């Protein structure tokens, strides 16, 4: 990594030409020079933010949202409205750290904080991600068994191996394109609403009027929802992906090295992140509303997994609702497992200062890809042990919520440090929204702990 960075710092004619073009692009332009808005061009600019937001709705997240809707009905929908600006702010800050420094969160922590902090955070992240992968694989296997029959454990192995192999052996640009297409699978949950008898008046009231129950179950569910919407693995993934993009595009350099074009890049990051988080929350809200209308309304409140939710929809909303729900589980799992395994590999690799990045060939980043494969492999193996990954699923979301607090505090402190971010230290409304997000997560964790104790 240090060798790569030193080569980037060497002046050459290409660098001077690039800076010159950026200077021209950052100069004030007349209206005639501005290109008209193009939806196709806008879609091409979407990348890390869209994939991050879509992967947030993984099978474990679907299980959490289904359980929340089945247990508490429409009244839990307000969480999606509240979490949207909070998750958008924290993810934008993550992306800015990656784009400005050319390193992910772990790479920056390893350079500016004591080693024990890095070890503790990365160890907890790796454990939570591995359990999450195991649970996602199990949910995907159960959903496939609902659709076509056959042994679930076979599907666990096939999905796990395919996800890891694609990350290691596929061309990076082609792989990112596949991930973008997989985001479309999430529209299955919007389609599932068509088969549910939704009371739209109650659903809208549930979104706009917060209803809070001061019980341990309710507060634990709130932390689980926050843990699956504002997840640590998403922080590491998006920051590292922004850094990775600079290895693909030779015209891009860390903004702390080359300042030109910064505002254009920040605008792209904001549009990408807001789009991804809005998409994520829309899908999550669709799942909650579907579960509330189809399961909670009929007294079916004991849903534990996404596959159980799909199966329970058949007698209530019809077989097509079950099929659509199950297909969505498989599609989102194929999107989320690479992000979970990749986030672990980035966190470990950058912390150890290895060569990292999906843009690198396997032989050029053996240690990085080994961690990625190990993370996916352990997720597969957990499905062969007496440990039930589905039973651990709900609590892995809670662990994510608890782990998110120290990671977010670290991130906010790092984003304001000029020795990390230079002239691009995060300030203003975005900075305070980031702290608001951190405070909301901390308060929910404290409230859950108090209620569990009582």
What is the CATH domain class?
Answer: Mainly Alpha
Count, helices: 21
CATH superfamily membership:
Amino acid/polyamine transporter I
Radius of gyration: 22 Å
Number of strands: 0
What fraction of the residues are assigned to beta strands by DSSP?
under 5%
> How many angstroms does the end-to-end distance come to?
50 Å
Mean pLDDT across all residues, rounded? 80
Shape: globular
Oligomer: single chain
Unreliable residue runs: 1-33
Tally of individual domains: 1
Quote the CATH topology.
Amino acid/polyamine transporter I
CATH architecture: Up-down Bundle
Give the proportion of residues in helices.
over 70%
What is the chain-wise order of helices and strands?
HHHHHHHHHHHHHHHHHHHHH
Describe the main β-sheet briefly.
none
The SS-based structural class is mainly alpha
């Amino acid at each position: 990594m240090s060798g790569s960075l030193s080569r980037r710092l060497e002046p050459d004619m290409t660098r001077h030409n690039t800076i010159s073009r950026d200077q021209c692009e950052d100069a004030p332009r007349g209206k005639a020079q501005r290109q008209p808005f193009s939806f196709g061009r806008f879609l091409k600019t979407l990348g890390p933010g869209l994939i991050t937001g879509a992967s947030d709705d993984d099978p474990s997240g679907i299980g959490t949202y289904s359980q929340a809707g089945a247990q508490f009905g429409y009244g839990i929908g307000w969480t999606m409205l509240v979490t949207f600006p909070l998750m958008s702010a924290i993810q934008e800050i993550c992306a800015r750290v990656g784009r400005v420094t050319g390193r992910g969160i772990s790479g920056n922590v390893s350079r500016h904080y004591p080693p024990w902090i890095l070890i503790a955070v990365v160890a907890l992240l790796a454990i939570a991600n591995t359990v999450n992968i195991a649970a996602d694989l199990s949910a995907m296997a159960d959903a496939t068994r609902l659709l076509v029959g056959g042994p679930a454990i076979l599907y666990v192995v096939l999905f796990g191996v395919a996800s890891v192999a694609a990350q290691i052996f596929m061309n990076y640009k082609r792989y990112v394109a596949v991930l973008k297409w997989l985001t479309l699978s999430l529209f299955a949950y919007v389609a599932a609403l068509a088969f549910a008898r939704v009371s739209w008046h109650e659903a809208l009231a549930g979104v706009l009027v917060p209803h809070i129950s001061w019980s341990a179950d309710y507060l634990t569910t709130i932390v689980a929802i926050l843990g699956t919407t504002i997840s640590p693995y998403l922080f590491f993934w998006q920051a590292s992906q922004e850094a990775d993009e600079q290895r693909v595009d030779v015209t891009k350099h860390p903004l702390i090295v080359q300042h030109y074009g910064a505002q254009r890049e920040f605008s792209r990051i904001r549009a990408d992140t807001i789009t991804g988080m809005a998409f994520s929350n829309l899908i999550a809200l669709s799942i909650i509303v579907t579960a509330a209308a189809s399961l909670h309304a009929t007294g079916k409140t004991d849903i534990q997994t996404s596959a159980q939710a799909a199966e329970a929809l058949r007698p209530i909303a019809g077989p097509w609702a079950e099929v659509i729900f199950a297909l969505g589980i498989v599609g989102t799992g194929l999107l989320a497992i690479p992000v979970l395994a990749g986030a672990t590999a980035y966190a470990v690799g950058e912390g150890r200062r290895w060569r990292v990045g999906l843009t690198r060939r396997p032989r050029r980043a053996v240690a990085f890809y080994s961690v990625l494969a190990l993370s996916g492999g352990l997720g597969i193996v957990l499905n062969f042990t007496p440990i039930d990954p589905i039973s651990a699923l709900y609590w892995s979301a809670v662990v994510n919520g608890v782990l998110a607090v120290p990671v977010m505090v670290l991130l906010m402190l790092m984003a304001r440090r000029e020795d990390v971010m230079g002239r691009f230290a995060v300030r203003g409304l975005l900075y305070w929204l980031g702290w608001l997000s951190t405070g909301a997560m901390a308060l929910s964790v404290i409230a859950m702990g108090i209620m569990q104790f009582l």
